[in-house]
Recover the amino acids of this structure.
């Protein structure tokens, strides 16, 4: 989508500090980190939110979780623990209309979150 900030990052129109990229996903550091480790993983296919997951695009979600597992191990935070967040819709805190997963680690993450 032409006006989607994440699509612009995927296309290289907006720079990002990439951690991982393949033909299906992009992972990059958050520009406003909420923890010592804070990165996002986004599908390259424009999926607005978790409400749009269906039989045709559901395999990307499994792939995203495999990539998260790979990255947290490379960043040496897997054993200590991390949080995966997906906000869906306005009340869920979603501010960008492109499905994405926040991964936070590197400190004790309290519950409940905000």
């Amino acid at each position: 989508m032409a006006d989607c900030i994440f699509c612009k990052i995927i296309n290289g129109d907006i720079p990002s500090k990439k951690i991982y990229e393949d033909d299906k996903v992009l992972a990059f550091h958050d520009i406003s980190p909420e923890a010592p480790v804070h990165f996002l993983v986004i599908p390259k296919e424009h999926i607005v939110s978790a409400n749009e997951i269906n039989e045709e695009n559901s395999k990307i979600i499994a792939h995203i979780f495999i990539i998260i597992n790979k990255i947290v191990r490379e960043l040496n935070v897997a054993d200590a623990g991390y949080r995966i967040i997906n906000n869906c819709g306005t009340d869920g805190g979603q501010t960008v209309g492109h499905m994405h997963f926040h991964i936070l680690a590197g400190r004790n993450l309290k519950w409940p979150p905000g």
Observations:
- The chain has one domain: 5-105.
